[in-house]
Write the structure tokens for this entry.
Amino acid sequence: MPHHRARWALALAASSAVARLGAAQDTTSNRAMSSIQLHGFLQIYYRTGDPTTRDGYRLRKADLKFSGELSPRLRWRIGFDASKILALTKTTETVDSSTVLTDVAVDSRSRIVQDAALTLLLPHAMRLDVGQQIIPLSLEGTVPSSQIETIERTLFIVERSRATGLGDIRDIGASLNGTAADAIEYHLGLFNETGESQNTTDPNDQKAVLGRVALHIPGMAHFQVGGSGGFQGGPPAGPQRRERAGGEIQYRDQYLTLRTELMSARDAALRRFGWYSLASARPTEQLQFVARIDSWDRDLHSETALTDAYERQIVAGTSYLFDGGVGKVAFNLVRQTFPRIHTVPAATFALIAFQGVW
């Protein structure tokens, strides 16, 4: 009997320990689940009058973002863009004077996964982000889509017919972010590429160093000046060589935004350069007027077709927020010209957008 009582006592102790462990796990799980946040952004627009693009509706953005806290110092986030369309990367070779398709693969940059990162909060208002994230390149490229004053971003970001855009792009890596002396905002990261390896592994041994710094002028809380850039090594004419350099100036308060940026890029032998100036007025909390001058040269050394043509745009528009800012209707009128090439006609076209954010 003493032996049986000992075994029963041991079993009861074990079951009690398992119950306490399960309760602790449930508490941790409930705490993690209760801290999950869901955000989203949906934008649909209609484009008409542009000779380079068919008229029609477009599901421009369908973002879903989840985030939460794993501990007081560790946070997580993951985001998806359900509007993205899978693209294919094709490999060809010439056989007997004919072009033959040798391989087809899904372009990983076209997959819907956007952000997927962990954030570690550090002393002195610093944070370390590890994972797939927006690279610190250009001011407008780091502003959420729901807060952009125009329907489309500036040309050096949104135009991606050659290489990749110069802002609002993601790659896998680690970045240190924070502020110093209540005046200097800094972002410095080491990434696989400069936006070419989203959702995949690094295709070469070189790494890209990217950074952005902004000085918030003491005594002038609404004014900032800064710059961003990046470098990925390799032979000067090698396919993996990347160089980026840009500058930014912005004044923003409750009623007015004035912003100008420039960005230059080198991708092996390809040279690109763009700039824009934007003014936005908000006479009320719901109503906004905007104007932007945009200049973009896809290839500084060539001018033969739309893929390498120098382009100018003048954008004028208005938008209206409703239901506390969760909904927005916007209208943009765009004058588009290609001054150095005559095979692509100038045009004036319109964009009408309807969007919601939560």
About this structure: The first helix runs from residue 2 to 34. The chain has one domain: 51-357. The two ends are 66 Å apart (CA to CA).
